[in-house]
Amino acid sequence: MAFKTNILLSLVLVFAVPLMVNAFVWNVGDAAGWSSQTPYDYTYWSMGISFLVGDDSLRFVYDRNTTNVLEVTSADYISCNATSPLAAYNTGNDTIQ
Ligand SMILES: *[C@@H]1O[C@H](CO)[C@@H](O)[C@H](O)[C@H]1NC(C)=O
Ligand SMILES: *[C@@H]1O[C@H](CO)[C@@H](O)[C@H](O)[C@H]1NC(C)=O
Ligand SMILES: *[C@@H]1O[C@H](CO)[C@@H](O)[C@H](O)[C@H]1NC(C)=O
Hints:
Layout (H helix, E strand, L loop, with lengths): L1 H19 L4 E3 L14 H6 L9 E5 L7 E3 L2 H5 L8 E3 L3 E4 L1
Parallel strand pairs: 1-2
Antiparallel strand pairs: 2-5, 3-4
The protein binds 2-acetamido-2-deoxy-beta-D-glucopyranose (NAG) (3 copies).
Protein name: Phytocyanin domain-containing protein
GO cellular component, one term: plasma membrane
GO molecular function: electron transfer activity
């Protein structure tokens, strides 16, 4: 019985830890990183995650020679218009809240 209680407590702790952390940095694409060259389903990647807007950050890791990150408005995203980005990143390793 004590053994079972310990397992239950361990599970509770494991699941409770992420809830106590205010800010989490998500590596976009996990190990695949951020790339337009490699086929990767970023929509599928993001479906499994509950992002805490205002707390969490997205980290984009990519080859800066071939790729960058542009932050655009929702309307510009939908119309695929990157002429006036809100922000542009090109270090190859950018963390954006
Ligand atoms: C990016 O370009 C620089 C300068 O040409 C080169 O040294 C570096 O290896 C390149 N990085 C990648 C990931 O190809
Ligand atoms: C893209 O956005 C810019 C700046 O908001 C705007 O001037 C331009 O007309 C837009 N282009 C298209 C094709 O919608
Ligand atoms: C990106 O930057 C973070 C924070 O500075 C660092 O911990 C991480 O190792 C870097 N990742 C790569 C792939 O350079």
